[in-house]
Design brief:
The complex is a heterodimer of chains A (206) and B (557). With 206 residues, chain A is α+β, with helices and mostly antiparallel strands. Helices cover 29% and strands 27% of the residues of chain A. Chain A has a five-stranded mixed beta sheet with strand order 3-9-8-5-6, with no helix packed on it. Chain A has a four-stranded mixed beta sheet with strand order 2-1-4-7. The chains are: A alpha+beta (206), B mainly alpha (557). Chains A and B meet through helix 1, helix 2, helix 3, strand 5 and strand 6 of A and helix 3, helix 9, helix 11, helix 12 and helix 13 of B.
Chain lengths: 206, 557
Amino acid sequence: MTFSNSAELLSFHWVAYSIYSALIISVIAWFGYNLTRKEKAKSIVRIPFYSYIAFLVAGGVGHHIFTYNTIPWVSQDITRHNITPDALYTFEMENQKWIGLPKNRIIVECGQTIGFDVHSRDLVYGFGLFRQDGSLVMQMQVNPGTDVNGILDSNDILWTFNHNGVFDLRSTEYSGPRAYGEHGEDLLLVKEFMEVVGCKKDGGKK
Amino acid sequence: MSFKENLINGTNFDHKSLNALQKVTLRAVVVSFLFYGLVAIEGMIMRLVVTGDANPLPDMFSHPDHYFSIMTVHPIVGIFGSTYQLVFAAFMFLVPFLTKKPLYSVKLANWVWGLITGGTILAWLAAFFWQYAPLYTLYWPLPADTAQFSAIGGIVFIIGVALIMLGTFGFIYNIYATIFQKVGVHANKTTKELLISGFAIDGMLNLWHKLRGKQPYSKEPALALPVVAIFRGTVDTFLDAIVILSAGVLVLVYLLFDLGGSPLDVASIDALLYKNYFWWGLDLVADGLVLIYVAGSWYLLATLITGQKLFMENVARAALMLELLVSWMVWSHHLLADQGQPEMMKLISGEMVTAFELLTQGLALFITLVTLWKARPLKMTMELKYLLGGLVGFGLAVPAAIIQADMGMNRVLHNTQWIIGAHVHIALIVGLYMTLYSAVYVLWPIVTNNTKLYSSKLSNTHFWLHLIGGIGMGAFMGMAGLDGMLRRHLYVDGEFNTFMILAAISGSMILLAWVLFLANIILSVGIKGLIGIFLPSEDKTASYGIEPEVVAENHKV
């Protein structure tokens, strides 16, 4: 099992967490009901204390093992400095503006791994790609700062695109009210910033 | 008794019968719930603004300066003005009550609520008049960005936060001074014994001795378990206050230099390092203070409701010690989207140590549930209902936190409404506040000298509205987050208005619940009683339910 993009992951997460929520609410409700009953409730299942502890430990650790093995961008993120992207886009942010963005829409071929390296000259910003339905493809924080030689700090991410789509660019971190127009319009929103082409309908290379 | 009579005189409340400790507790509780109402209204305003065309509010609320000013003070008023105030008041009453000793200083307790109230009002005014809006995260160098914000507004805001932290230090001093007083049952205890018990080391040693087949290290621990939780949580409260205060001083220095015409270079402070420092402190509020205080409150409530000993008390004590270490090492889960953060810190602090919170909180949930279960059948009182509601809240919010504290999930959840809805608001509104409401109902007869509540129907309606509204609001915000809605962002075109309208409906249930709760309290104590709470107490006793000689002994000290 591997999630090929964030939409698949978030759908899975939506279902799994909803089931869990219904379960925990039901368990406490059942528990509360039986607390008040005079006749002894029959246990549905007996869970020994140490099994419960083992379950919590397994849940906490197992969750990360599961995501590491099913979400491809985790290992790619950790080893990104050893991976050469198919294309690298570098740009800056200052005074609530993007600086040096490509003049034309970025076109990405299906399956390509793209690097984005964003530098901030003043405040903390964010870098996020969004589908046309508003859902999030991925994001990272963009911190300001320089090294000892005065070179701006990198905020870099690699992303492999497996599904067709046209993506907007937004800053995902608040950088003050000046990031918005008088009537609240987002000044850091770049519509149709990039497009992924050449994938099959369900994702993956043709 | 007529409605009017109740409104003026209450049921059988007599403020003159209250001693100094009871009055100072009630003063903070009253102010806390007033701030709670303000927070609920602020939350509703923000929720309505993002509904786009469905927003019935005037245009001024959609203006970014205004909107983000509200977003900045919303957590300040909620966390400090309301929650801190309520928790501090409860603990400054409970520690003397549980240790059977007088509170170290009622005067200091009065300063605590006064400072926190004054500080919260100042911070709120800074946002209202100067629209100072760097948000509670204060990400460097935004709070010192005088191109966007008024330096005067910033200074007023920081002074407000500093006053809150001074009040917090007052609380901490009062708690520890009370615990370490060598009077009453602790007259013959040494500081070392109290320290060992306070840090729950006796619980760990008891477990160790049991494993080795030896007699327990301590059959009668010096401090009751809830006091240990307060002792432990207060360590984190102290560290967190130091961090917030020092960050405030840093911002203040920059703003003062700016006002003086010689601005300092904001680039001298490394933004990522600052983020680490600030989140280390801020996270102690959530992962240290809240979880430990809450665990302690559950244990106390379970034992008071059942009248029985806590199940697996030594394990519970040891878990509190474990939580101390865990809470200091988990801040990196807030920095999983920061690419400059070392990967090992993300992995160890952000993921692995954070996962331990599932264990510690799961353990607290288990111990509380079993303690209740062993005492059944129980009457479904208001305090029990709220306690179960609190357990549901954390049962939902803690796993949500563990899920998002993951490098894979965080890439698509960070800074979305999922974090603030499904995790933060469920944890606070459902988990924390329902636990606190349970404590309010348990302590009500003790603190008010058996004042009859005006209406149990109102209490019940409050419970259901709060529970359903709280879970509903968190859930709909969370769903919007999964659809890509950001948390610190202004949406004016109604992009997520279906979820936001549903969240607003749920939010209005919470607001209505608060109105009903407040009405019930006012009709119980009456307006005269409410004013009387703030008048000086004739009875200067700083304790509740202890022998007069202990009080006299303390007065000698």
